[in-house]
Amino acid sequence: MTTQIKICGLSTPETMDAAIDAGATHVGLVHYEKSPRHIELEDAAKLRRRVPEGVKLVLVTVAMQPQYLARCYEALRPDVIQFHGSETPEWMALVRKTIKTETWRALGLREAATLERARQFEDCCDLLLFDAPAKSLPGGNGVSFQWDLLQGWEPFMPWALAGGLTPDNVAAAIATTGAPLVDASSGLETAPGEKSVDLIRAFCEAVRSA
Ligand SMILES: O=C(O)c1ccccc1N[C@@H]1O[C@H](COP(=O)(O)O)[C@@H](O)[C@H]1O
């Protein structure tokens, strides 16, 4: 099965185009002021126009207020909203009723028990995104978790793998976990928030060769 690729934290036309040309199935924009990858709505809307049909735009949010979330949705019409904070299953369920788009819930995976707790999100989002546990930021810390926690796990819904993925380690991550979708951000940067076209290309190539 072909592994899907999300390149996240894009903020310039050049890197957005590079991700799309390199074969990303998903491109991500982070709208979270504390992040070095934060992009203002107006700039995000300009990048959104570069995304062709067939490639999904993912908006990464962290515990956003409902009214502001609705405003972001109207401005960008993302194909996916990624929730990367402490959003509860009840809150996710409410969002699902009011905003008709695909939703992902990120979960920091520290121990096997988290995989059990993940079940509470089964009916209130479309995909679980396993990432390393939060550090200074809720995500985008460039840190991998113990991938073998996912070995033998039986997925009960669509899922994806994030956390410190790079062109050098993504093949091993796929081999260990069987991830159907891999998501990379800070591992494709030369400095926080500065994406590298070469690293984006190398990552997509490494996923295809895995
Ligand atoms: O990228 C960020 O700055 C960010 C901020 C707040 C929440 C999530 C964020 N990024 C997402 O975190 C994962 C893992 O990223 P990394 O490859 O370890 O840097 C990914 O989904 C990013 O989109």
In short:
By secondary structure, this protein is an alpha/beta fold. It has one domain: Aldolase class I (TIM Barrel, Alpha-Beta Barrel), CATH 3.20.20. It is 31% helix and 21% strand.
Considering the chains and any ligands shown, give keywords for the structure.
single chain, 8-stranded parallel β-barrel, binds ligand LGQLAAA5, 210 residues, 21% strand, 7 helices, globular, two-stranded antiparallel ribbon, TIM Barrel, alpha/beta, 31% helix
Explain this structure.
The mean pLDDT is 96. It is built from seven helices and ten strands. It has helices at 13-21, 41-48, 66-76, 89-98, 112-117, 170-177, 197-209, and strands at 4-7, 26-30, 56-61, 80-83, 102-108, 127-131, 159-162, 181-184, 189-191, 194-195. Helix 5 links the parallel strand 5 (102-108) and strand 6 (127-131). An eight-stranded parallel β-barrel has the order 1-2-3-4-5-6-7-8. Strands 9-10 form a two-stranded antiparallel ribbon. The chain has a single domain, classed as Aldolase class I (TIM Barrel), CATH 3.20.20. The protein is an alpha/beta fold and 210 residues long. Bound molecules: the ligand O=C(O)c1ccccc1N[C@@H]1O[C@H](COP(=O)(O)O)[C@@H](O)[C@H]1O. The ligand O=C(O)c1ccccc1N[C@@H]1O[C@H](COP(=O)(O)O)[C@@H](O)[C@H]1O binds at residues 8-9, 28, 30, 32, 35, 37, 60, 62, 84, 131, 137-142, 162-165, 183-187. One of its GO terms (molecular function) is phosphoribosylanthranilate isomerase activity. It catalyses: N-(5-phospho-beta-D-ribosyl)anthranilate = 1-(2-carboxyphenylamino)-1-deoxy-D-ribulose 5-phosphate. Residues 5-205 form the N-(5'phosphoribosyl) anthranilate isomerase (PRAI) domain. Its EC number is 5.3.1.24.
